[in-house]
Amino acid sequence: MYRFQTYQVFPAIPEPLSFLETLSRNIWWCWQKDAIELFRRINPRLWRESKRNPLAFLTLVSQERLEELAKDNSFLAHQKRVKDRFEKRVLHPIDRSKGPYGMENVIGYFSMEFGIHESLPLYAGGLGMLAGDHLKAASNLTLPLMGMGLLYRKAYFKQILDHEGWQQEQYPETDLYHLPVEKVTDDTGNDLIISIPGGTMGDIQAMVWKLSVGRIPLYLLDTNLPENSAEIREITSRLYAGEYSVRLSQEVVLGIGGMRAFQAMGKCPQVCHLNEGHAAFATIERLAQIMTTYSVDLKTAFEIVPRTTVFTTHTPVAAGHDEFPVDRVKPYLAGYEKIFGIGIDEIVSWGQPSGSGPYAPLSMVVLALRLSRFCNGVSELHGKIARRMWTHIWPRRPEDEIPISHITNGVHLPSYISLELSQLFEQYIGPEWYLQQRNEENANRIDEIYDEELWRAHEMCRLRLVRNCREMMVQQYGRRNAALTIMEDIASVLDPDALTIAFARRFATYKRAHLLFHDPARLEAILNNEKFPVQFIFSGKAHPRDNEGKAIIKRIIDFARNSALRHRIIFLEDYDPHIARHLVQGADVWLNTPRRPLEACGTSGMKASINGVLNVSTLDGWWCEGYSKALGWKIGNGEEYSDAGYQDALESQALYNILENDVIPCFYHRKNGGVSAKWLRMMKESMKMAFKYFNSHRMLREYEHRFYFSANNNFRNLLENNTEKAKQLVFQRNRLKSLWSGITVSPPVRHSSGPFRVGQLIPVTVVVRLGELQPEEVDVELYNGQQKSLDSIPSGEKLTMTVQENMGHGEYLYAGTINCNAAGRFGFTARVLPRGDAWVKYTPELLTWSE
What we know:
Blueprint: H1 18-24, H2 33-42, H3 44-49, H4 54-60, H5 63-69, H6 73-91, E1 107-111, H7 126-140, E2 145-150, E3 158-161, E4 167-170, E5 181-183, E6 193-196, E7 204-213, E8 216-222, H8 230-233, H9 244-264, E9 271-275, H10 281-294, H11 298-304, E10 309-312, E11 323-324, H12 326-333, H13 336-340, H14 344-349, E12 362-363, H15 364-370, E13 374-377, H16 380-389, E14 405-406, H17 413-416, H18 419-428, H19 440-444, H20 451-479, H21 484-490, E15 499-504, H22 520-527, E16 534-539, H23 547-560, E17 569-572, H24 577-586, E18 589-592, H25 604-610, E19 614-618, H26 623-626, E20 632-635, H27 644-668, H28 677-692, H29 696-739, E21 744-745, E22 749-750, E23 761-769, E24 778-786, E25 797-800, E26 802-808, E27 811-819, E28 826-834, H30 838-841, E29 848-849
Parallel strand pairs: 1-2, 1-9, 2-8, 9-10, 10-13, 13-14, 15-16, 15-18, 16-17, 18-19, 19-20
Antiparallel strand pairs: 3-4, 5-7, 6-7, 7-8, 11-12, 21-23, 22-23, 23-27, 24-25, 24-28, 26-27, 28-29
């Protein structure tokens, strides 16, 4: 075979259009409606054919067309408008000298995937889309954040359905020349390449690429280098590789390699945010970097790294978290033995549950939890589930005190809102309305939009959705060589005026796409109602190894083959952000049927809400917080069942009832041929809800105020004066651990007899033996709350007790008071915790309850 040397020829952009090249190399354009339209107006057909990828698109535009546009005053004026906004929002320098962070990019955000736009195949699903929205919002809010991920040479997979409706997967190669990435170079101008321990494979060499997301740099690691073996080159070949050995290598490259890449670029973050457990190995490399950079020992580094690390978990199912056999993990971490001065078994134990033994798998979530002070789930319900899942990390701690909070996800509104509604928002709220979401008054201006304007805008979106669905269906059936009669029939699927319900998401069984098909006859009656027509659009991918998910897709395809239903129910192949945008903008109803409590958050319904699409969903994930009868419908009342079959049967009937008795009558309740006034009121309430509460700007501000500020301050305080504060914390921890076993707490004594009445005070004392520890080193608390069983207080009240008497020999009498502020059966006890910040207070072994 000949050895060809490759090169890429780019178009000769006329000087008046030179900004197009700048714009195409920063993905900022993808959430700017005016910038998207700038590209599209050059040649709408080529823009579609290029899959809306500016770099690929510009190579298709003829030189004649470019020369023509260079003299087109209208186009040049449009370009100037976009350029002015780009310079203001991307290039204009930010003075951070007086801010809380200083001048550096101090927050490192690690994620296995980033869903920024369909032209960047670096994502698989909701986790990646959330990460992409995180970066976009950080750019809008000028946060000093930088992303770290992997550069995959193949997309997650392209979904194709065969003649039987069974999902097939293809993994197309990504053309790097059509991605807006650039190589990062070192001080000598050479490609920046880092080395990562590869275990039995030998060292892994990874190149660093940079992708600009507005103001935010996203760095991507690539192992597909000639100097690597074929096995190593495959590490970054495919997202979420099925082989656990490749998956482990990917997570080593992301975590350890990501930290080394930051260090090599001189951009060591002061705060690290781990988006899921995939990047947990970053904490181990960060310990090593802190030790070598600041000349401290491991115990001191252990006081610094967790207090400056944020960990977000997205998965409420234990089986969804990565675990790896210790014999496979140890070779990757062996090099840290010398740096840390401890054995490999102790290093690995950081990721093993307490008491699990030396051969237990290493859990990436356990490792992340053990080395992160700031931990959160992604909705209020998910935070509760996460605390329940990981109680064993903090034994003897009440569930409500497990240090995992929640920050509910939000979506980047300008990335998903329709052009028509964006224009209405500009008219009624103001230019760059998406930067003004913190002002509740702005959300209320949505009420001022004329009903006729809002409905006309929505009908345009539904019409566009139907047109695109027809085009995609023709392409799908054309690939299967369908008969001409079927092709003609498919070209007219869906009714632009009918109530349109969308179900689009990953086809995991717990998401229950099959719920709608529990009673086929009842569903057929809904679909065939000529007076009140209803139509359904399904889309989504099943995991390549999830045959149950694939079977659900096939069931939908088989149902839709009925010639009497073919126009009313369709399945769109290869779900991606482009299809998602059309669906969340053009559907009337967004259907979501997960089995509670298995949906951590689920952000697609938020994207639908900002477009005035009404949600019908089980009370799971974000909908527990978003639901109101003024803006949508709930399936069930949040019940949880042990019998999944019974739950499905019950909730499928509830779904049919909601559709037949509430949704359909509300949509078609129109007087004098107009529109449904109630439906429009609900649309506005839905839009206001998303605008105020479920946007990525609110989410990021919450991360900033609750986590980033504190973590950044911790980094500075712990490192100043030659890490004096960190060393004090080491001394404190060592002292507490060595003396804690000497603590005993006698049963508390109440000094008032019952029965008690609301408003009464109960004095309580307890004798605490502290041994060599002093009262100022601990907190003694009364733990009081309503009892659900003899040994269970689900949510207790913590009441601080004070020293009343030094009884000598390390014994102290503590006193406190219980306020009977409600009727019921209550219980109380006493306990001792270490005094200090949360990282000290929640040390698992430092907790003693009353005997």
